[in-house]
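[09:14] KT: can someone run the structure on this one? pasting the chain below
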Amino acid sequence: MVAAALVAASGARAASPPTDAEAVALAARHCVACHAEMPVHPAFDKPPKGIRLETIQELRRYAKEIVEQAVVGRMMPLGNETDMTDEERDRLGAWAEGGK
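[09:31] RB: done, structure tokens below
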């Protein structure tokens, strides 16, 4: 019974369009260690290519690049250090291509 409810709930989430809050959360989990004003990743002392992905406005500004690098090309996160899943990539891509 509980398993059926969980499956139904996850199916409902997958069917709903990604929200801005979800996009920000995905970026926080997978992008901002490097793409922040003050990166915490030890390889960077400034955001690569000057690209910051900390706010919804920044995500909107770089939506095309996000799709190219993280969704289609799957080159980011670099080495997939954060273990970004295919579902997360698809959700971020759906958000970016949804006119955000």
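[09:33] KT: thanks! Confidence is low (pLDDT under 50) at residues 1-10.
[09:34] RB: yep, looked fine to me
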